[in-house]
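Fold this: N-acetyltransferase domain-containing protein
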Amino acid sequence: MRVECLTREKVPAFKRYCQKHIQKLDQSYITVTELDSFQPDEKNPTYVAFDENGEMTAAASLIINSSTKARFRIFHSDSGEPDIYKQLFDAMQKHTQKLNYVYLFTQETETNHRQMLESAGFEVERYSYVLAREPKRVLALDLPDGCTIVPFVFDRDEELFCEVRNAAFAQHPGNETLSSDIINQIINSAYYLEGGMMLLKHNDRAVGAVRVEKEMENGEQVIFISSLSVLPEYQGKGLGRQLLRACLQLGEEKGIPKAMLCVDSQNDRAAQLYEKEGFEKIESYVCLGRTVPNGKLVI
């Protein structure tokens, strides 16, 4: 078994490996669309392993940005050898000097993968659920006096959106600060949906925010709702429900009536809201993470 840095020439083999195992892994960053423009570089360090026949048997790919936390796009081996995880970790060390934590998601039903990760020093951080809403009637908005939902304007509203979203998610497990730079990348994303970013204002003050994208799920186009946020002092007033309905209405207007979203298992209030609005749980994921002492992935 040999481990090597992924070269551009072997990117097609890496993509095939991801697609081979995609049904058993977190699909967030290994779909055909996500990998369409993928290239290994300093922000996407990737290492792979090959058996004696030259077949790819393992892959590890990090997504590195300005944060000190990095998420694995994929960290998986089909060789059944726990030691390969250590070898991939060791190879990744040169890219982790500025990090203090790495993590990934795996399907809750994939116990073997989870055990392999735990043997490599990962620990369960939290659980997350994927919820879906089949096409059905969307109830009308019922905004309180003084409240309006307005479209997000690029090159103007980035700071407002980040301020609301970051304040709302500050105490949530796994939260990572959203920056204007990340928002500015959205408009060029394959998932971008025109009109899919909105702000909820109360007397001209931004107090809520949400983001809607378009995705393909099992060959069917859906809207995916994320960053549904309400400032802490405005929570409990039904504003999150109004933002959610605005997203569902947008999906209907775009001819994409099916909706999906994720919710943390500890966020009971949000989960109850989504269920009351017609969402049902369809998948469960485990988030596993581990610290990176002094920027080194030590096992």
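The first strand starts at residue 2 and ends at 5. The mean pLDDT is 93.
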